[in-house]
Write a structure and sequence with these properties.
The chain is 55% helix and 11% strand. It contains 12 helices and 7 strands.
Length: 331
């Protein structure tokens, strides 16, 4: 129980790119989705997007100790088994924390450049963004490997320290060897084609049609959920900005950092990159938000309540635009 694992990888980036369908010719007949109100023709997903699957394994150092458990049961006069559990953390410290932090940064890179799609670490991304995402991932992966190297270099020293601080709870068997430890920290990113059709031989036509309809409905739902997720990112940052621009209560001072505004612009760039099907409505909305808030002058806001109120109204207007757009993706 000392390793948390993600989903297993499936195909390589090169294979996934080879599996991407070629662009349709101008003479091809466009597919008509079952839902005439869908914001995107479902089959275009297989041409414009791929699924990016992230997985990880990480040695946590969280160990169950039978002896500690027995002591807890005895000291507290517990008469029924499995009611308490004695646990300890081995190899705890800045080196293990650094590895965890590096892994978390890689995960954040994957999450910010993609939109949710399926459980199991699958998120959707524009096919045009594969190279950018892969490059960012590889950079983060190297940081993880560097952090792991530092942990392994100090492994023996960490074990000696644990022997001193854990005393009777120390067990040498809890500590992986240097070679085994390296394999306990992994991050992988695999790309898969988006499945938007269900066709197979040997199934009754009516059954196949029913499954196809269900598949298309599920895909359309995922598209809307993914887009709602993108807009929710903007809503969060704009709501935070609006709150910070509210007048201070009597006797209180509100701190307004530059990042409160810059985070909104950064999120606009993030949403633009994660706009997996290049939805013009989302692109236009992001541009409108940027144009709306670019006039906010934080220095003026800090010096003037009038400027603060004007800035708040501006941020509220941008927030209202995003919230209105989100309603279109509500299921």
């Amino acid at each position: 129980d000392d390793i948390s694992r993600g989903a297993d990888p499936a195909v390589s980036v090169q294979k996934a790119m080879q599996m991407l369908p070629k662009e349709e010719s101008k003479e091809s007949v466009p597919f008509t989705p079952y839902d005439p109100n869908a914001r995107i023709e479902i089959n275009t997903l297989s041409h414009k997007t791929v699924l990016a699957q992230f997985s990880t394994s990480c040695f946590t150092g969280n160990k169950k100790d039978k002896r500690l458990t027995a002591q807890m049961e005895s000291n507290n006069h517990i008469t029924e088994a499995k009611r308490v559990s004695g646990r300890k953390y081995v190899m705890a410290g800045k080196r293990l924390d650094a590895v965890r932090a590096a892994i978390q940064r890689v995960r954040q890179t994957w999450e910010t450049q993609t939109a949710p799609w399926l459980d199991g670490g699958f998120r959707i991304v524009s096919a045009k963004r594969i190279v950018d995402l892969k490059t960012a991932f590889e950079t983060g992966k190297r940081e993880v490997e560097t952090a792991v190297d530092s942990l392994i270099d100090e492994r023996d020293e960490i074990v000696r320290h644990d022997r001193q601080v854990l005393n009777g709870a120390f067990n040498a068997a809890d500590y992986p060897s240097a070679s085994a430890l390296r394999g306990m920290f992994q991050v992988t990113l695999e790309f898969h084609p988006v499945a938007t059709d269900f066709r197979t031989e040997g199934i009754d036509a009516s059954v196949q049609d029913e499954i196809t309809r269900a598949t298309l409905n599920a895909t359309d739902r995922r598209v809307k959920e993914a887009k709602a997720d993108l807009l929710a990112r903007l809503t969060e940052k704009l709501a935070h900005l609006t709150g910070k621009l509210a007048p201070a209560k009597a006797g209180e001072k509100t701190r307004l950092h530059d990042c409160t505004l810059s985070n909104v612009f950064n999120t606009c760039a993030e949403v633009t990159a994660a706009n997996f099907d290049e939805d013009s409505a989302i692109a236009d909305l992001v541009a409108k938000v940027e144009n709306t808030i670019k006039g906010i002058d934080l220095d003026a806001v800090r010096d003037s309540e009038v400027a603060r109120n004007d800035a708040k109204l501006t941020a509220q207007a941008a927030l209202a635009e995003v919230e209105s757009a989100m309603a279109g993706f509500t299921l």
